[in-house]
Write a structure and sequence with these properties.
The complex is a heterodimer of chains A (453) and B (444). Chain A has 453 residues and is of the alpha/beta class. Chain A has a domain of 256 residues: Aspartate Aminotransferase, domain 2 (3-Layer(aba) Sandwich), CATH 3.40.640.10. Chain A is 37% helix and 12% strand. Chain A has 14 helices and twelve strands. In chain A, strands 1-7-6-5-4-2-3 form a seven-stranded mixed β-sheet, sandwiched between helices. A three-stranded antiparallel β-sheet of chain A has the order 10-12-11. The longest helix of chain A has 37 residues. Chain A is globular and about 70 Å long. The relative contact order of chain A is 0.14. With 444 residues, chain B is an alpha/beta fold. Chain B has two domains: 113 residues, Aspartate Aminotransferase, domain 1; 253 residues, Aspartate Aminotransferase, domain 2 (3-Layer(aba) Sandwich). Classes of the chains: A alpha/beta (453), B alpha/beta (444). At the A-B interface, helix 1, helix 2, helix 3, helix 4 and helix 5 of A face helix 1, helix 2, helix 3, helix 4 and helix 5 of B. The structure holds pyridoxal-5'-phosphate (PLP). The site of pyridoxal-5'-phosphate has 14 residues of chain A, from helix 5.
């Protein structure tokens, strides 16, 4: 059972290790370095005070299986964030176990399934709009449902007529982002909710875009039954180069008994925090309490802002997006005319036909100009989509500089398209060959650690 | 304390540009009936300045018993985190970036993840690894999903030595997949593996198991493969410093909790889901994978590989729904493994295993204490107690120890028992003091 040979791990001193990672860090863009208008991801500034809070030793050293009496502080943190999430979304209770948005989706869908099971109903499908994020259909499939795609209308909103046709007694629920992934508010949301509920389904809110409506309106009041939020987006926890995140799921009264357990809860009789198992719980969705240190940072952020401050966040997020859109509207095609909320989707479709410059190229050229690129090619319903979400933490000067850079790129596309299609020119590497890493003949997915350093 | 930089004058200029009178008009597309006049105040914490915030959070932290010397494990360990590793993981270039979709400005994260995949393959003895999953439990679920997809079967056989919380997460997700999970009971602390039926998709073995015992992984992988099932081995990364790797023992899929590699306890998260498998199953691997390639000038470069498996391309046909993962933890694990090196990892495994055996021997000298298992163990053991475990844990806290994890609920057959873990952070002196404290508590 004992190994006969030593593992093949790097043998380097601490000095070289630190130098290696410092070099890597120099080859990495980040929010701390500058604007990151990556749509749908809410790449706002991550306050340093939240990091200081997360570093507090008595939180960092808390063991997840310690008896409740020894971790009252942690349990209180979870309960405080749960309360705030419920207040901001208009829901009754929430679980903080899901470690990211997609995990929240799966949790919500399993709650949906448990709810229908308890009604003695077997429903087979979940509706999602054609503008939905890829995690939505993937989560639907894992939850054992069939995905049915609802088309958007010319305004970029759920096509109500088509929606009604697709909705039936096999519909377990409808998953919607609001504002949707085009950055537009689904103004018919009350009608949609009514229709879903009349058909016996549940309405699920993908909270990726909650930043737009913080303190302005609440999914609960719109008629949603299940809401996930992303603490790594709306509540400014750092994205970690791709994670960790946190995707709490909040539900209305009629679904509380299905929430994952255990659920940290205040015992009003003793004033102590304890862990409770909801009556018909779907079970655990994480081995512990979720990404606690992310939840803690979110609490620090909420507490820094307070209720008024959070509403101000939504206002400035929307103002920044609206302003950026207005500034570049002359240079880029805007496929939808509705007022955008915290983000908007432009199209490089016409630009491509006229000049050969694609959305991808605009994004790459933006890297040369010192900014991160927008999200490109999502949502799928927009040709050559470029989704911009500036977030509220970028100043007017920064938004102006970003707008100027984008306008310059549009001009370059006309006058010197090669400079755009060949971009970036200033980054450490240029257009890595992505085909090569997927081709079985050429791909290299692991390497000799000590080579080529 | 706000993080919004706009002055009133800025807001004025911007509103003018977009043709609005007031910020409130920004929300005109939202129907009045659902608009709030004021933000919800009850339930949302009131705003604090930075010094007030720190003070209030310190007060909250003070409600934990933060001073206890940790002998608890069960999937979450008081691991030693070198200062260099903390410093690397705290670099804002890594911490405040997102998914490396724009490879040109993400070579740092991409190369770190490529190195992570490489080290995970070496550590587990497998051929391919992904760039991380959420935690050990969800990694297990993904491993089982891979096995079910590859075999087209739905029966899952699980050793009772699997972390009960992993098992619970597996059961939760099984409801969507209609997986049928059966248990293999324990004998002496290890699973008594039966022969495997032909309709089984996955055989799941944790090694060392939840009770610290070493399972017969070679037997499991052989039986699984004879039956046409895939073996899914839940590994402990530190144990691989001295034990044969799961790959060497024939594993088809290796998953595990990587928190011990550079991660703090953090009340259970963020942790690190390790996932590695054979090249043959690459297309079914969940989550992101980074590959080495060349750029337009022929320079070495890194990029996301095989994205056609992922949800943003394949949607409902994707191999998994995961998008945001645990990249920062993977970077910390990479730094931790490189910091340790092969000898360092071996030393951590050996020294904690030795100390765990010393501690177990000394505790078993106490009347009423004995091991609940007979199989060889690594650095964690199930201790039978003459008193209810909850009481022992509560009383040992007064002596300055987090004594272990109560096993009574999950393993009722043991009677009063708890799981005691020793990491490389524990010293002989602490072990002696622990024994002394246990003596005192039990004699009372
Ligand atoms: C609209 C939308 N839904 C869901 C998700 C998935 O969230 P996560 O990456 O946290 O799993 C995203 C993330 O990018 C998103 O933009």
């Amino acid at each position: 059972m004992l190994a006969d040979e030593e593992l093949d791990l790097p043998e380097i001193g601490e000095r070289d290790l630190v130098a290696h990672f410092t070099r890597l860090a120099h080859r990495q863009y980040s929010v701390d370095a500058g604007a990151y208008p990556l749509g749908s991801c809410t790449m706002k500034y991550n306050p340093k005070a939240s990091e200081a809070v997360a570093a507090l030793e008595s939180f960092a050293a808390a063991h997840p299986s310690a008896p409740d009496s020894m971790v009252q502080g942690c349990l209180e943190v979870i309960c405080l964030v749960e309360r705030a999430i419920c207040a901001l979304t208009g829901m009754k209770r929430a679980t903080l176990q899901p470690p990211a948005g997609a995990a929240g989706e799966l949790t919500g869908l399993l709650i949906m399934r448990a709810y229908h099971d308890a009604q003695g109903e077997e429903r087979s499908k979940v509706l999602i709009p054609d503008s939905a994020h890829g995690t939505n259909p993937a989560s639907v499939a894992i939850a054992g449902y069939e995905t049915v795609v609802v088309p958007s209308d010319l305004e970029g909103l759920v096509d109500l007529g088509e929606f009604e046709k697709l909705l039936d007694d096999q519909t377990a629920g409808f998953m919607l982002t609001n504002p949707n992934t085009l950055g537009l508010f689904e103004k018919n949301i009350k009608t949609i909710a009514k229709l879903v509920h009349e058909a016996g389904g549940l309405l699920y809110y993908d909270g990726a875009n909650l930043n737009a409506v913080l303190g302005i309106c609440r999914p609960g009041d719109m008629g949603f039954d299940i809401v996930h939020s992303n603490l790594h987006k709306t509540f400014a926890t750092p994205h970690g180069g791709g994670g960790p995140g946190s995707g709490p799921v909040a539900v209305k009264d009629h679904l509380v008994e299905y929430l994952p357990g255990p659920l940290p809860t205040l015992d009003p009789a003793t004033g102590r925090f304890m862990q409770v198992q909801p009556a018909k719980s779907i079970g655990r969705v994480h081995a512990n309490h979720g990404n606690f240190a992310i939840v803690l940072r979110a609490l620090a952020y909420m507490t820094s802002n307070g209720p008024e401050g959070l509403r101000r966040v939504a206002e400035m997020a929307v103002l920044n997006a609206r302003y950026l859109q207005a500034r570049i509207a002359g240079a880029y095609q805007m496929p939808y005319t509705g007022d955008c909320m915290h983000e908007f989707v432009a199209s490089a479709g016409e630009m491509r036909r006229e000049t050969g410059v694609r959305a991808l190229d605009v994004g790459k050229r933006l890297l040369d100009k010192g900014f991160h690129a927008p999200t490109v090619y999502f949502p799928l319903i927009v040709d050559e989509a470029m989704m911009f979400e500036p977030t509220e933490t970028e100043s007017l000067e920064t938004i102006d500089a970003l707008a100027d850079a984008l306008i310059e790129i549009a001009a370059e596309a006309q006058t010197d398209p090669d400079v755009v299609t060949q971009s970036p020119h200033t980054t450490p590497v240029r257009r890595p060959d992505e085909g090569r890493v997927s081709n079985p003949k050429t791909r290299r997915l692991t390497a000799d650690m000590n080579a080529g350093r | 304390m706000s993080f919004i930089p706009h002055t009133d004058a800025d807001v004025g200029v911007m509103l003018d540009t977009v043709g609005l009178d007031s910020t409130i008009n920004l929300f005109d597309s939202i129907p009045d009936e659902i608009r709030l006049d004021f933000p919800p105040s009850s339930g949302v914490p009131q705003a604090l300045s930075e010094p007030e915030l720190i003070a209030s959070m310190k007060a909250l932290a003070g409600r934990n018993r933060g001073e206890l010397v940790c002998f608890a494990g069960g999937g979450a360990y008081d691991a030693f985190v070198p200062a260099a590793v903390s410093s690397i993981a705290a670099k804002p270039e890594f911490a405040t970036a997102y998914t490396p979709y724009q490879a040109e400005v993400s070579q740092g994260v991409l190369q770190a993840l490529f190195e992570y995949q490489t080290l995970i393959c070496r550590l587990t003895g497998m051929e391919v690894a992904n760039a991380s999953l959420y935690d050990g439990a969800t990694a297990l679920v993904e491993g089982v999903a891979l096995a079910a997809a590859v075999t087209g079967k739905s029966k899952i056989v699980v050793g009772a030595g699997l972390n009960p919380r992993f098992r619970q997460v597996l059961e939760t997700v099984a409801s969507g997949h209609s997986w049928d999970i059966t248990s293999v009971p324990l004998e002496g602390g290890v699973s008594a593996w039966p022969s495997i039926d032909g309709d089984v998709a996955a055989v799941v073995v944790q090694h060392p198991n939840y009770l610290g015992c070493l399972e017969d992984v070679g037997l499991v992988t052989a039986r699984a493969s004879e039956a046409g099932a895939l073996s899914v081995v839940v590994t402990d990364p530190i144990s691989n410093g001295i034990l044969k790797t799961p790959g060497a023992l024939g594993a088809d899929v290796v998953v595990g909790e990587g928190q011990q590699l550079g991660g703090a306890l953090n009340f259970g998260g963020p942790y690190l889901g390790i996932f590695a498998t054979k090249d043959a199953y690459l297309r079914q691997v969940p989550g992101r994978i980074v590959g080495e390639t060349v750029d337009a000038d022929g320079k070495r470069a890194y990029a996301l590989a095989l994205q056609a498996r992922e949800q943003h391309i394949r949607r409902e046909k994707a191999s998994s729904n995961i998008c945001t993962n645990q990249t920062l933890m993977a970077i910390a694990a990479t730094a931790a493994l490189a910091w340790l090196g092969p000898q360092g990892l071996r030393r951590a495994a050996e020294s904690s295993s030795l100390l765990a055996h010393y501690l177990a021997d000394r505790l078993c000298e106490i009347p009423g204490c004995s091991l609940a298992t007979t199989a060889p163990f690594f650095r964690e053991f199930a201790l039978k107690l003459p008193l209810p475990a909850a009481d022992v844990i509560e009383r040992l806290a007064d002596e300055g120890f987090l004594a272990g994890v109560d096993l009574t609920g999950d393993y009722p057959d043991f009677g009063d028992a708890m799981l005691v873990a020793v990491t490389e952070n524990r010293t002989r002196q602490q072990a002696d003091q622990y024994v002394e404290a246990m003596n005192k508590v039990i004699k009372k």
